[in-house]
Amino acid sequence: MQTQTSSPLVLAQTKSPLTHSIPMANYVPLFVMLPLGVVTRENEFPNEAKFEQQLNELKKSGVDGVMVDVWWGIIEAKAPKQYDWSSYVKLFQLVRKCRLRIQAIMSFHQCGGNVGDAVYIPIPEWVLSVGEEDSDVFYTNKSGNRNPEYLSLGVDNLPLFQGRTAVEMYSDFMKSFKENMSDFLENGTIIDIEVGLGPAGELRYPSYPETQGWVFPGVGEFQCYDKYLKQDFKAAAAKAGHPEWDLPDDAGTYNDNPEKTGFFGPNGTYQTEKGIFFLKWYSNKLIEHGDQILDQANKVFHGCRVRIAAKVSGIHWWYTDDSHACELTSGYYNMKDRDGYRPIARMISRHYGTLNFTCLEMRNSEQSADAKSAPEQLVQQVLSGGWTGKIDVAGENALSRYDREGYNQILLNVRPNGVNKNGPPKLKMAGVTYLRQSDELFEANNFEICFSFCYI
User: Fold this and answer.
1) Does 338 show up as a binding residue in the annotation?
2) Where are the domains of the chain?
3) Which residues contact residue 65 at a Cβ distance below 8 angstroms, ignoring those fewer than 6 apart?
4) pLDDT value of position 114
5) Which of these, 414, 320, 401, lies nearest to 362 by C-alpha position?
6) Given pLDDT bands bounded at 50, 70 and 90, which one contains residue 112?
7) What is the mean pLDDT of residues 396-418?
8) Model pLDDT for residues 152-188, shown as the tens digit of each residue
9) Which residues make up the binding site for substrate (predicted)?
10) Known catalytic residue: 186?
C-alpha cells in the first residue's frame, strides 16, 4: 500500500471547501456504528431528541448512514416467534427523517463479554432455558466451560428449540424483520443486511472470551467440545480411516503463548497429519455454518434492494508466528503457505455478499512485539483476497479512535492505490463504518478531527 499524506478521514463527499474536488468514481460511502444499547434490553428507545441532534450532526458532516445491531435477544425475548419491532421502527423512522441510510446487523449473539461491549443483552431467555437442560447447545472448550453468547454451530440443523433448528430460528427472525421493515427496505433506507454468524456478529468461534479469563494476546482455545461437535468430528475421522483420532488435548489454555503448547509450538501437532485433518474439519465447519445461514438470508431478502454482508474478525496477534495460533482457534486456517481467508471470500461470493473486515485503523508500530502482531499485513491479505475473488469488501475500525494516525491508517486501506482522477481507482472498498457514535465522539476536538474531511 502506498503512503498517504493527507489528513483525517475523508470518504463521503465530492467537494471540500478546503481542497479540490475528486471524481465521483473514487467515492467510498462512510457509515457510523450506533451505540450497542441504542435500543435497550427492555426494548425501549430513550433519548430520542438527543439522538436526533447527533444524527443531524453526522449528516451535516457528510456521513452516508449508520450501522445498527438488531438484537435477537430483544426482539424475540419473550417466547418463540413473538417478535416486537416497535422500538426499532421508531429508531429507523428517525434515521430516515435525518436522511441517513441504514446497515442493519442481524445480531444473533449476546452483547457483553467482548472488547468494547458496554451493555449486556443476552440471547433470548427461552433459548437460554433450552441450554439449562442441554448445555451442549453452547460452544464448549476442552475444560467443559460453556459459552452462552452464541449457539454452537453443532446445533444448526437439530430441532432442539421447541421444534426448530438454530438455522430455522435465524431464518424466521429475518423473515419477520423483512415483513415489519418492508417500508424501509422498499424506499432504500435499509441498504445492507449484515448477518451475524458468531460471537460479536463475526464468522468465528468464541475462542478468546474475556468472560472466561482470556487476556490479550493469549492464543485462545478451540471451541468444539460440546457433544454435537464431538460426534461430528468422530464421524469425520472414522470416515477418513482414523476412528482413533480425538479432538486436540495439547492446545493449552486461553492465555498461553504458542510455544508453551504441544499443538502450536515448534514441530507442534498442527503440522502433523492428525492436526491438519482437525484444522481442516474445524475451519470447514465454520465456513459451512456461514454458507448455510447466508443462503437463508438470500432467500429471505430476495427481491429487496439490499446487499448481504458477513463480518470477519481481525485476529492480528500471533500473525507472524508460524502457528497463527489465535487465528486457528478462531476457525481461520491461515498459515504462511495456506490462505485461510480466500475460502471464506469464495463462500461469501456465492451469495453475492460483502466481506466486512475489522482492524482497519491498526498499525504494526502500535502493537506489542511479544504478540507477534501484524495488523497491516493481515488487512492487506484479507482485502486482497476479497478483491481477487471479485467481491465487495467493506471494513471498520476495531477500537474507537480519535486521532489522525488512526484515521490515516484507515485511508491507506480504503483506496490502496490512491485516487484516480481520470476514472475509477484500481481498488477501493465498498464502504467504511466508523466505530462508534458516542458522547466522546461528539466532544469538540474529537469531532473536528474525525470529520474534518479532506480529499485523497
Assistant:
1) no
2) 24-220+276-450
3) 29, 31, 32, 95, 100, 101, 102, 103, 191
4) 67
5) 401
6) confident
7) 88
8) 999 999 999 999 999 999 999 999 999 999 999 999 9
9) 69, 109, 117, 311, 316, 358, 397-398, 436
10) no
Residue 414 to residues 40, 173, 178, 253, 306, Cα–Cα distance (Å): 33, 33, 31, 36, 22
Of 76, 194, 202, 327, the active-site residue reads 202
454 burial (CB, 10 Å; 0-12 / 13-18 / 19+) is middle
Q: Which pLDDT score, from 0 to 100, does residue 420 have?
A: 79
The identity of residue 8, as a single letter, is P
- Grid cell 457528510 in the structure block, residue: 62
pLDDT at 23 over 70: no
Q: Is 398 annotated as a binding residue?
A: yes
Residue 415 in marked binding region = no
Q: Are 402 and 440 in contact (CB under 8 A)?
A: yes
436 is in an annotated binding site: yes
pTM as predicted? 0.93
CA-CA-CA-CA torsion sign (41, 301, 55, 400) = positive
**Candidate list 327, 361, 376, 396, residue with the active-site label:** 396
Least confidently predicted of 71-85, 268-282, 424-438: 424-438
User: 42-99: per-residue pLDDT in tens?
Assistant: 999 998 999 999 999 999 988 999 999 999 999 999 999 999 999 999 999 999 999 9
Across the range 285-314, mean pLDDT stands at 97
Tell whether 420 is in a known binding site: no
Angstrom distance (rounded) from CA 81 to CA 258: 45
Distance CA 355, CA 333 (A): 17
CA distance 365 to 216: 17
CA distances from 176 to 1, 172, 456 (A): 43, 6, 42
Q: Is 270 helix (H, G, I), strand (E, B) or coil?
A: helix
| Residue 69 is assigned to a ligand binding site | yes
Q: What CA–CA distance (Å, rounded) separates 311 from 316? A: 15
Q: Please, where are the H alpha helices in 145-221? A: 166-180, 182-186
In one letter, which amino acid is 299?
K
Which CATH code, of 3.30.479.30, 3.40.50.620, 3.20.20.80, 3.40.605.10, is assigned to 24-220+276-450?
3.20.20.80
Residue 109 known to bind ligand: yes
pLDDT at 17 over 60: no
SS3 state at 379:
helix
The 10s digit of each residue's pLDDT in 370-405 is 999 999 999 999 999 999 999 999 999 999 888 888
| HEC sequence for 329-374 | HHCCCCECCECCCHHHHHHHHCCCCEEEECCCCCCHHHCCHHHCCC
**Hey, what's the cell of 238?**
472414522
* Helix axis angle, 273-300 to 166-180, nearest 10°: 30
